[in-house]
Amino acid sequence: MDVFKGAEIMFYWLGVLSTVAVFLMVYLHRTYGFDWKTWIMIGFGAFLLIFCVAWSVSSVLEGEPQAAALGLVFFGAPAVVLFLLARRGIVKKLKKSD
Amino acid sequence: MMDANEEKDTKNDKGKKEGANAFNRRDFIKMGAAVTAVGAATVTAAQTKAVEKLVAKHKDANIKTTSVDKVFEFNETYTPFHQKDNIFMSTITGRLPELQKKMMGFHGPGDIDPETPGMGRLDYALKEGAYAGVEYMAPGTPASIPNTGVNSWKQKTKEDKHHPFDYQYLFEDQYKFRDKTEATNAIKKAAKLYGANLVGITPRDPRFDYAKFIDPLHKKEFGWEEFPFEPKSVIVMAFEMDYEAYSTAPTYVSEGGTGDAYSRITKTTHQLAVFLRILGYKAVATCNDTGLNVPYAISAGLGEGSRMGLLITPKYGPRVRIGKIYTEFDFCNYDKPIEFGVTQFCEKCKKCADACPANAISRDEKRSFHPTHDNKNKFFNNSGAKKWYLDAEKCFGYWMQINAGCGACISACPYNKPDFWHHRLVDRLTAASPGPVHDLMREMDDIFGYGNTHDGEAVAKFWANKDD
Ligand code: SF4
Ligand code: SF4
Question: pTM here?
Fold first, then answer.
């Protein structure tokens, strides 16, 4: 029996992913202490990453592979860049405090 | 001093306590995991609910209701259209002889072309099967012929029963609804049950009705005096056409999407007409006949008009066909026209005009009261209404050339998307954005690979996709 359809399963996992992302951000903040710039980069990066997953999975479900691939490029790549920038900031801060 | 039994009990207690502590520690982790999972699921459920609410809220956020007077602009030259002047009738009756010549060989199995994707025997069979419903129940109605088959204007009475158990006639007494809201809901509920995807109700407006009619099969011309009652309301219904079938346009497969919608229209409008007659109200089911579908659908709040001349709905874009009921019933709440930025977007977009193989769609930035295309002086232009005018002769000529209904403009339109959240989000963002963003959105639509036409792969994809 089809209890869930593709989009519903996707929204379920997006919920799980969002929850994990929030827990992870709080954990990392407690461990490394984010400043406001890092918060913006990590927060926006997480949003873009989740949006990227949602967009690309939805595009696959509707049978538009080109839209799915472009979704990864347009939303996934900036998310990775933001995470890398945030990581660089944290590493710098840790080096300073050493 | 403790005796042996006491000592044993104490040991047992201690053991129990240790066991309990051990249980607590182990279970604490398990419980923690469970609570986290439940928490996550709760948060997930809450988030899903919140997202659903947000989507539902924003789904209509940029849809504004307006009035018939604001949405339609006519100048003094406008007169209601005569059915004999539309492109189908003027071709059939030989007023456009070139097209008529081409039409003679149209729609036959001789057109099957196994070499062209979407035009083979399988695709042809799909198309003909799709049209089977309307061809059997109300032949000619997609080509605007009124008063045929189940769309007959005759209001069957008790005396006209087909057999002793035929109770589908006009009841003599009229059912009284408690109030207009109950009546409106009941009609819309019935329409949806019978298969309509969108329903709106609007007052009858003679400007949108054909002024006169012809029946080319019986070589007859007639007017509203033959209509069996004075219609007061028009119930307008939109029917979605299959997205995958339409992504193959122009082929027999996409025409299968069209034909199937027409068959569903015929079934649903006939059922709704019977529903109204049993409630004691006269009703006539119509397809592309009797009145103009697009202005009636706009008036009934189903969507906006567009550059390509078709209705664009918020949910299905232009990928709909329209059916309607004329009825004497008027104890209902009428719907109002809606606006969600289509006109402004069309001014910039022109994607349908680019996709049109016949060059039939206007490229003018703004709408006008008169056609500006090469055939602007011909009789089939219903001038005087502010809109983008389609060159119907070029459009229909292309249909004759490829031996199939085209619909490439529908496939190409950025509003033609499956009903997925991300498209609705983009639609809403577009509607809320100024002009330059519209250019960007149109480009992004191309980059993301939407709206391809003449796409042989789409045909293979249509037949390959399992639909379970
Ligand atoms: S149906 Fe085809 S030929 Fe007609 S306007 Fe649309 S794209 Fe052009
Ligand atoms: S393709 Fe563009 S211009 Fe044409 S109807 Fe659709 S939105 Fe309007």
Answer: 0.84
